[in-house]
Amino acid sequence: MKNNLKVWRAKQDVTQAELAEAVDVSRQTINAIERGRYDPSLSLAFELADYFDCSVEDIFTYDPETE
Question: What is the mean predicted confidence (pLDDT) over 32-41?
């Protein structure tokens, strides 16, 4: 799965730590998602989208190449 979470964070001027605290995960989890090393659970994906007031599809894109 590809994502542009880092772009959304930059647009809102939010640090990894601030975002992690807001969605109740570790900063390392946010970092791993941004680097494509971890695919979030469906509930976490929705929490992130809710935080940025966008749809899950705005942040995450399915890419069969990364499977």
Answer: 96
**Strand ranges (E), the chain:** 2-3, 60-61
Residue 66: inside a domain:
no
Q: Has residue 59 been placed in a domain?
A: no
d(CA 29, CA 22) in angstroms, rounded, equals 13
pLDDT over threshold 80, residue 66: no
Find the domain containing 17 and state its range.
2-51
pLDDT of residue 26: 98
SS3 40: coil
Residue at 11 is within a domain: yes
This prediction's pTM? 0.92
